[in-house]
Design goal:
Blueprint: E1 2-5, H1 10-22, E2 28-30, H2 41-46, E3 54-56, E4 62-64, H3 66-76, H4 87-113, H5 128-149, H6 162-173, H7 186-195
Parallel strand pairs: 1-2
Antiparallel strand pairs: 1-3, 3-4
Helix pairs in contact: 1-3, 1-6, 4-5, 4-6, 5-7
């Protein structure tokens, strides 16, 4: 079993943090996107969408998409639980993880992909106006998150879950996207200061 990734990219990092929180020993293999290695015939056979991360099992089976990889690993290694235990907790974790993924991380990524010079070769065309249109959406979801964190310790409740991993990776990705958490989001800052101290959060 191995995980193919681009170090520092947000979605592979989500999986890397998940693996670390589980205490698993899984080798990571680097695929260099800036060298177009994701366009190779060999990698395309593993993932026709030509994106990382990809979990490759010992029999050659390939699983892509970050949450799918994490769910597979959770089923194999139930503890510590990161997806929820009761039906209500599982639904709540899923709800918040989706909000952080499709609401926060997605819009931050659009700001990055459509403005950063390093993305010019991969994001054709870059549309700066689209990046500008996404900035208010980032702030909207930060506000939603801030309200929630005023009532609970972690993103999805009273314990750390995959929703916290997704939110942390999203907020760290704000820096290369040239965005900032404002002082108005005091609850987000409180939460971030805490979860950023976890050993897994140091991984890139």
């Amino acid at each position: 079993m191995k995980i193919i990734e681009q170090p520092g990219a947000p979605n592979p990092r989500r999986v890397k943090l998940f693996v670390a929180e589980k205490g698993l020993e899984i080798p990571f293999e680097t695929l260099e996107l800036n060298k177009a290695e994701h366009l190779s015939e060999e990698f395309t056979k593993l993932n026709p969408l030509q994106r990382v991360p990809v979990l490759v099992l010992d029999d050659g089976t390939a699983i892509s998409e970050s949450v799918a990889i994490c769910r597979y690993l959770e089923d194999l290694n139930p503890e510590p639980n990161l997806f929820g235990i009761s039906p209500l907790e599982r639904a709540t974790v899923e709800m918040w993880n989706r909000r952080m993924e499709l609401g926060l991380l997605f819009h931050i990524a659009q700001c990055f992909r459509h403005t950063h010079p390093a993305m010019a070769a991969m994001e054709k065309p870059q549309i700066p106006e689209w990046a500008e249109a996404n900035k208010p959406r980032v702030m909207q979801y930060l506000g939603v998150l801030d309200d929630a964190l005023g009532k609970q310790v972690y993103v999805a409740g009273d314990r750390y879950t995959i929703a916290d991993i997704t939110a942390l990776v999203a907020i760290d990705f704000m820096k290369p996207a040239r965005l900032q958490v404002s002082d108005a989001h005091a609850n987000v800052k409180r939460w971030y200061d805490e979860v950023a101290q976890r050993p897994s959060s140091k991984l890139r």
